[in-house]
Amino acid sequence: MTGQVVLRLPTASRRAALRWLGAAATTCGFGRLASTQEIEPIKVVIAFPPGGTSTASMQPLEAPLRQALGAPIELDYRPGAGGNVAALYVVQSKADGRTLLLGHAGPLAINHHISVQTVFDAQKDLTPIALVVEYPIVVCAAAKLNVSSMADLIALARRNQLVVGSSGNGSIQHLAAEMFSQATKTQMIHIPFAGGGPLQQAFERGAIDVLMETGSNIVKHVQAGTLRPLGVMAHERLSILPGVSTLSEQGMPGLEVAAWFGLLAPARTPDHIIRRLSSVVLDAVAQPGVRAGFVSIGGIARPLPPDVFRKFIAEENERWGKLIREIGVTPLGTGINRSIGAPQ
Q1: What residues pair up with 100 in beta bridges, in sequence order?
Q2: Would the CA dihedral through 63, 64, 69, 75 be positive or negative?
Q3: Which fold has domain 42-134+259-326?
Q4: I need a labelling partner for 11 at 20 to 30 A (CA). Which of 28, 114, 162, 171 fits?
């Protein structure tokens, strides 16, 4: 032992050091000390192509999550089947907190009502971490219709069959349109497109009369004067469209619809990892810069912890299942012809 210096800490100091090391291990590797050579990234699986609202939702979160978790954030895009492709990938991933789903209503509360699939059960096979943000739907009319108010649009829709477009059968735009039609006693022709990009292109070609879209997806059309926003399907107005009143303000309460995003993990993920991830995500969403990032694209921060998020998903599942039954959709795969088609 010659030449070595042995430092013996008092018992209290040793305990404090052990507590510090335990906290560091949890931060860096959810219970495992991170390697100094390479830190495994946290993979967030996204159900849409790059560049859309889901990508924009993650951008303000990446830096605070990376700093708090001590690991890089990797966005993994897996579009298809209305979000089921991404959800299934996460369901089948290792339950170590390293692969997460940026989940939305499609695979979590809508798809199984319109397409029979027994591969996974989103409410059993995924564990909620936190709801993060919602993007209220805005009811818009093409400028070519020459309507300047919601009352004008409703009156016109009762006289003529207008065309409303969506990014796919069973999409949140489609269901928002169905809910609006029920409440206003109007009947519009619904045309589903294979995603948000084709929907936008169809509008630009003049094929769409009415859009039920999130704020960030309509701003360029509003600025160009080709689209008129008439009402927000939310409890509050959007900062990017401050002059557009809510439907509740216009005497139509209860018509609140939003595209929402939250993070989930495989169902087998240990509780201590879920608690750690939830704490980090909710702390990030509380930061003013993150909230401002959401606001700039028509979003509203909606931080909900795991148990409340789980209840929210169940409520959305019941809400959209009821509407789908009311409009007479028969799930694909049942052998009955009457259906609205596969989710895009």
Answers
A1: 44
A2: negative
A3: D-Maltodextrin-Binding Protein; domain 2 (3.40.190)
A4: 28
User: CA 282 → CA 65, 131, 210, 301, distances in Å?
Assistant: 10, 9, 36, 10
Q: CA of 256: how far to CAs of 12, 121, 159, 319, in Å?
A: 56, 26, 25, 12
Domains 42-134+259-326 and 136-233 agree in fold: yes
Residue 276, C-beta contacts closer than 8 angstroms, at least 6 positions apart: 26, 30, 97
Torsion over CA: 156, 161, 166, 172 (sign): positive
Tell me if residue 99 falls in helix, strand or coil: strand
Query: The domain at 136-233 falls in which architecture?
Result: 3-Layer(aba) Sandwich (3.40)
Residues 201-243: pLDDT tens digits? 999 999 999 999 998 889 899 999 999 999 999 999 999 999 9
- Provide the residue ranges of all domains of the chain, joining segments of one domain with +: 42-134+259-326, 136-233
Report the relative pairing of strands 227-233 and 189-192 from DSSP bridges.
Answer: unpaired
Q: At a CB cut-off of 8 Å and minimum separation 6, what does 97 contact?
A: 30, 42, 265, 269, 270, 273, 274, 276, 277
pLDDT digits (tens, 9 = 90+) for 88-128: 999 999 999 999 999 999 999 999 998 766 688 999 999 99
Q: Which residue has the tokens 């495994």?
A: 40
Identify the H or E element spanning 261.
strand 258-266
CA 229 to chain centre: 22
